[in-house]
Fold this sequence. Notes:
- The protein is built from 3 helices and 11 strands.
- It has helices spanning 87-109, 114-126, 161-190, and strands at residues 2-4, 7-9, 17-21, 27-36, 41-47, 56-62, 67-73, 130-133, 136-139, 143-145, 154-155.
- The longest helix is centred in the last third of the chain and has 30 residues, at 161-190.
- The N and C termini lie far apart (60 Å).
Amino acid sequence: MLKMAGIVQDCFSIGSTVAYITCYDQNIEGEVLAFDQQTKMLILKCDTASSTSKLNDVYIVNLALCSDVQVKREVNSIPEPPQSLNLQRLSTRVRNQVERKKRQVSALAAGVSQEGQKLFLAIARTINQVSWSGPNIVVFQDVTITPPYAVENVNGSPDSRQLKYVKKIVEKHLNDQASANMSSTAVSATQ
């Protein structure tokens, strides 16, 4: 039995509204998402402090550190079961994330300049078929970018659409890097 502020509570029903005072004297009120009776941990969904009305704040609360816990509105109905998960879709997302992380690690482990690593990662955000061949970046298996990784260092079949596409990505990346460098230089010059 959980006894707080004169209230005896076995558990909190999902969907109920609970209010409490934190050990920092902060008043919190929200909807119960979960409650673990053994550890006395409560998860609440509360209105966000920001102006975005579609978002909520989620608090994980150790009730041992709270005072004046009150159930403002009790929900006695059985909550609907959570939606089933699409395990195949989740598995695909995990596999894709692992592949992306492996590409990022390969960029760092290739032993190339920081500019080459940044370009590799920029290309990998758009194109999955990117790898290292020594210090060279290979895209679509037939476009190669050699150091110092400028647009003129992009090589491939002259009529290839892929070559033109990769050149545009490299050009955009270099322009973005130049803009970032100019703005950081301007900020440091004003300080």
